[in-house]
Design a protein that fits this description.
Layout: H1 2-22, E1 26-27, E2 34-36, E3 49-51, H2 53-58, H3 64-67, E4 85-86, H4 106-112, H5 114-132, H6 147-150
Antiparallel strand pairs: 1-4, 2-3
Helix pairs in contact: 4-5
Bound molecules: heme C (4 copies).
One heme C (HEC) is lined by residues 67-73, 86, 88, 90-92, 107, 110-111, 117-118, 120-121.
């Protein structure tokens, strides 16, 4: 009996370590508001975006598949809370646009660069939403499309 118990504890510790290691690039739990601070960025030029993850699918009408997709870019339409979800940086691996890639076609930039993918996703939907609802850029009800509406001014 005692032996099995001890084995159980050891197994739990190992599983715990595996879980922590896995959480760097994927995760099943997510706060209602995500501080978008992807560790891969060596230096950061903009203030940290506070992303109201939960409100997006409970109040703003977005579905999981609008933002999360598989390795072929196909929307994960049947994703549920608690599922293991990969971070965007797992596939959109590079951070800041390399000078050599400046003339790369837009789709290739998005596939390669994290902030290009993020901006296309977030700002793309926000622009569509504002257009459909005839909300001007400065309308207080408009979804944010300008830099400082998402990135707060950096503290000096
Ligand atoms: C409007 C876009 C959007 C919608 C809608 C959305 N998510 Fe997310 N979700 C994100 C972003 C962005 C992240 C942060 C990913 C990162 O850090 O790379 C995230 C993170 C997560 C994480 C944590 C992953 C980790 O790396 O720890 C989980 C789990 C998750 N989402 C599940 C869901 C589920 C389930 C739904 C639908 C009920 C959903 N999301 C809807 C954009 C969205
Ligand atoms: C499992 C790998 C993987 C993950 C994780 C991933 N992507 Fe993608 N993404 C892709 C692939 C593959 C494509 C398609 C590229 C192509 O068609 O050239 C794509 C395309 C896109 C596009 C352009 C097409 C479209 O749907 O508008 C955007 C924007 C995008 N991803 C944003 C994101 C965001 C934001 C996240 C995190 C919430 C994310 N991706 C997570 C693999 C991934
Ligand atoms: C599928 C559509 C869609 C996508 C994708 C999306 N949003 Fe939004 N977002 C909305 C809508 C709609 C609103 C406006 C809701 C309202 O005020 O009525 C909004 C509002 C916001 C707001 C202001 C209100 C608040 O809750 O803070 C922020 C900030 C925001 N989005 C950040 C993001 C970020 C960051 C991403 C990408 C990681 C993102 N959004 C992706 C639809 C989207
Ligand atoms: C809808 C919200 C939104 C808007 C609007 C937006 N961004 Fe971002 N931006 C993000 C998110 C989310 C990230 C990802 C941060 C992370 O995951 O670490 C990001 C990342 C970045 C990064 C890389 C990280 C850093 O701090 O160096 C830069 C640079 C950047 N944005 C510049 C801009 C500029 C310039 C504009 C205006 C033209 C802009 N962004 C508009 C949400 C937004």
């Amino acid at each position: 009996m005692k032996g099995t118990h001890r084995f159980g504890i050891a197994a739990a510790i190992v599983l715990g370590l595996v879980f922590v290691a896995g959480a760097i690039y994927a995760g099943t739990t997510v706060p209602d508001v995500i501080k978008m601070e992807t560790p891969a960025y060596e230096k950061r030029t903009k203030g940290i975006v506070e992303f109201s993850h939960k409100k997006h699918f409970t109040e703003y009408g977005a579905t999981c598949g609008d933002c999360h997709h598989d390795e072929n870019g196909q929307p994960l339409t049947d994703l549920k809370e608690g599922d293991d979800v990969q971070s965007c940086i797992t596939c959109h691996k590079e951070t800041v646009l390399d000078k050599a890639d400046r003339k790369m076609p837009k789709e290739e930039k998005i596939a390669k660069y994290h902030n290009e993918a993020i901006h296309a996703n977030c700002i793309g939907c926000h622009k569509e939403h504002n257009k459909e609802n005839k909300l001007g850029r400065k309308d207080p009800k408009a979804a944010p499309t300008s830099c400082t509406q998402c990135h707060p001014k950096k503290k000096k």
